[in-house]
Amino acid sequence: MRNVPVDELDSTDRAVLAIGTDYPVGHLLAQHRHRRAQVLYAASGIMQVDTEHGTWTVPTRRAVLIPPDVDHEVLMEGVSTRSLYLESAAVPWFPTRCQVVQVSPLLRELIFAAVDLPLEYNKHGRDGTLIDLMLYELRTLTALPFELPLPTRADLRQLCEAFQPAPTIRSTPDDWAEQMRVSTRTFSRIFRAETGLTFQQWRQRACVAHAMRALASGRPVTAVATELGYATPAAFSVMFHAETSAPPSAFHPA
Q1: Closest to 108 (Cα-Cα) out of 42, 57, 47
Q2: CA distance 38 to 48
Q3: Smallest Cα–Cα separation from 203: which of 221, 223, 182, 176?
Q4: What are the contacts of 5-13 at 24+ separation with CB within 8 A?
Q5: CB-count exposure of residue 136 (10 Å: 0-12, 13-18, 19+)
Q6: Which class does domain 150-251 fall in?
Q7: What is the pLDDT of residues 134-188, one digit of tens each?
Q8: For site-directed labelling of 183, which of 37, 59, 161, 219 has its Cα 20 to 30 A away?
């Protein structure tokens, strides 16, 4: 099925609904929620998923797991998606918060095939076997560190949200502590308690998320490295590979 709203199909008596949808550049899916768990796969383009708890950047050929009944919005940058909407009973292992995951070639092909199945596929024939194999493969997903958690403390959240559109490695804990009018030591303690990361870890993730989006838009590695405050493209590339297990060139559009 392609370009069909899930709400029109949600009552279908099947554990898995598979839908393909194409979005233009810059399309924003305003805040919404689904009764079913969702596996949202980016066949092309890049997505940004936001909830009250954080931001998840989803590059091409990766997916994000969105738990049922979680309010979220999605910014689509030229994305063609494949979505699986799953009854909770079929995925008891599903995470309770969003998670970006690696998608194997086998699982990718299964997802693509599922989109082409009839809405009320035969649960006991070939189609049902395909769905069962896909559900099995979903349990082996590898999580990726593409989450940028956001604090609940208002003054710190304001600083984090202001930092995201233009991150830089030149920003220091001392700078942020001064703006919050606390000591650097107190700031570091608050930051870790609020986000689960050190400031340096969070800053690096913010830089990687920004870089993935910039690279996917076609910007040169050198320009992205300079914008983030790196002295050389090589230094940026080392950091980027360490975070994503791939070189920056892998995120350029095909």
Answers
A1: 42
A2: 15
A3: 176
A4: 6/34, 6/36, 6/83, 6/85, 9/119, 10/35, 10/36, 10/85, 12/119, 12/120, 13/120
A5: exposed
A6: mainly alpha
A7: 999 999 999 999 999 999 999 999 999 999 999 999 999 999 999 999 999 999 9
A8: 161
Note the Cα 203 to chain centre separation in Å: 17
| Domain range summary for the chain, segments of one domain joined by + | 6-143, 150-251
pTM of the model as a whole: 0.93
CB 114 within 8 A of CB 134: yes
List pLDDT tens digits, range 70-126: 999 999 998 999 999 999 999 999 999 999 999 999 999 999 999 999 999 999 999
Q: How far apart are CA 64 and CA 80, in angstroms?
A: 14
What is the length of the chain? 254
Residues 222 and 235: their CA atoms lie apart, in Å, by 11
User: Are 33 and 69 within 8 A, CB to CB?
Assistant: yes
What six digits make up the tokens of 25? Answer: 């550049």
| 3-state secondary structure labels for all residues of 229-245 | CCCCHHHHHHHHHHHHC
Q: Which residue, 19, 57, 75, 15, is CA-closest to 145?
A: 57
Cite the beta strand spans of the chain per DSSP E. Answer: 16-22, 27-32, 37-51, 54-58, 62-66, 72-86, 99-102, 142-143, 147-149
Provide, rounded to the nearest whole percent, the portion of the chain with pLDDT above 70: 100
